[in-house]
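RECORD TYPE: inverse folding
INPUT: structure tokens
STRUCTURE:
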């Protein structure tokens, strides 16, 4: 029996049920099961412990902790026997028993249960109690109509179930940062729609596979995803023709945000998301971000803005996107830009430069209309 504890959902007052039901709905898809029951503040599901399932749940928004448990009647004598049998083949020396009593009617307190079960393990299996530094923690959950016994508790990422927090459009490059930014939004309950801009002169269908692999990986967290692949070469050609090299990145990125805004409108999303981190590269000074974000019709959210590169890399490794992100890829944002880009972009100057490209808006509209949409779901 798999037992799952909700994370912050508990705090959501009257809306609590909505959050719980969404988590159940998401879990049914992720675990490919038909039945998940709610009992004593836990979600219970009949499923075998497998590495793949553990990995998926460890990165599943809305889960505080989870464990695989043996079920037993509300009878401590039986629990004792089951625990001994359950631990017979385990290798450990020092242990601790931790009881959680959701059923307040149960005649023994948590402390009493710890003592009874602990003594049995010491005596029958000849092991030592160690409350500070145990090799193994036996967890006993006393529910309304049964007792659960488990020996390993896994930690989830917390957060809120995907699709309880609205929709956002994430600008996904081939790099390390933007997949982590998308994941952070999923963790807070958003459904993320992806958009990637590519220059077909450099990016082949094969190199786009890398971006698709990132989206596929992140679909393990949000179950299914949509990716817009937007051809950017015509816009880049005009920018390169008309704009001095030192301003090009800012204008590339403003154009990307305008096109992403069109996608957000179509998708009924409420914000754009980028992988920016303050000061990490020249385009990410506060002045430049001001210039770039002011081209967006929607709030531009950057969940990694205060993170160091090392922290972002550690997260990327944890969520499994790092290995894909470091594969070589022709990044169109760095196409024909200056070695010494502008770091103090001035919005008025940028807007007047943009005016030199006569048909920019029409080109952006065309790129939006030419975008290819791909859908991904959990395998
Ligand atoms: P990343 O690792 O996410 O690529 P970065 O540190 O390399 O970030 P930039 O290349 O300046 O920084 O990009 C900043 C942000 O702009 C990215 O995080 C992403 O949100 C967006 N972006 C850049 N290039 C593209 C692209 N080709 N398609 C979609 N979004 C992009
Ligand atoms: Mg990049």
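DESIGNED SEQUENCE:
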């Amino acid at each position: 029996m798999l037992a799952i504890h909700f994370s912050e959902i508990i705090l959501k007052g009257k809306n609590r049920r909505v959050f719980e039901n969404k988590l159940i709905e998401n879990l049914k898809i992720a675990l490919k099961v038909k039945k998940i029951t709610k009992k004593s503040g836990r979600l219970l599901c009949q499923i075998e412990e497998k590495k793949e399932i553990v990995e998926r749940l460890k990165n599943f928004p809305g889960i505080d902790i989870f464990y695989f448990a043996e079920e037993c009647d509300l009878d401590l004598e039986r629990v004792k026997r089951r625990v001994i049998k359950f631990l017979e083949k385990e290798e450990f020396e020092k242990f601790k028993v931790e009881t959680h009593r959701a059923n307040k009617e149960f005649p023994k307190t948590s402390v009493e249960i710890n003592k009874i079960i602990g003594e049995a393990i010491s005596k029958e299996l000849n092991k030592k109690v160690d409350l500070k530094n145990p090799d193994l923690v036996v967890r006993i959950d006393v529910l309304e109509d049964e007792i659960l016994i488990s020996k390993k508790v896994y930690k989830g990422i917390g957060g809120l179930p995907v699709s309880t927090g609205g929709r956002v459009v994430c600008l996904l490059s081939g790099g390390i940062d933007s997949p982590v930014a998308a994941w952070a939004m999923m963790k807070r309950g958003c459904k993320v729609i992806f958009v990637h801009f590519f220059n077909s002169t450099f990016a082949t269908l094969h190199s786009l596979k890398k971006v698709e692999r990132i989206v596929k990986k992140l679909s393990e967290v949000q179950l299914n995803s949509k990716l817009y692949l937007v051809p950017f070469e015509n816009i880049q050609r005009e920018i390169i023709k008309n704009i001095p090299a030192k301003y090009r990145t800012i204008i590339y990125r403003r154009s990307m945000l305008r096109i992403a805004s069109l996608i957000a409108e179509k998708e009924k999303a409420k914000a754009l998301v980028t992988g920016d981190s303050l000061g990490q590269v020249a385009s990410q000074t506060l002045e430049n971000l001001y210039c770039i974000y002011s081209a967006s019709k929607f709030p531009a959210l950057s969940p990694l803005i205060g993170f160091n590169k090392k922290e972002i890399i550690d997260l990327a490794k944890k969520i499994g996107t790092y290995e894909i992100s470091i594969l070589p890829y022709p990044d169109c944002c760095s196409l024909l830009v200056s070695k010494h880009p502008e770091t103090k972009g001035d919005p008025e100057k940028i807007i007047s430069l943009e005016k030199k490209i006569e048909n920019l808006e029409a080109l952006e509209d065309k790129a939006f209309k030419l975008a290819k949409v791909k859908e991904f779901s959990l395998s």
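NOTES: Residues 265 and 298 are 9 Å apart (CA to CA).
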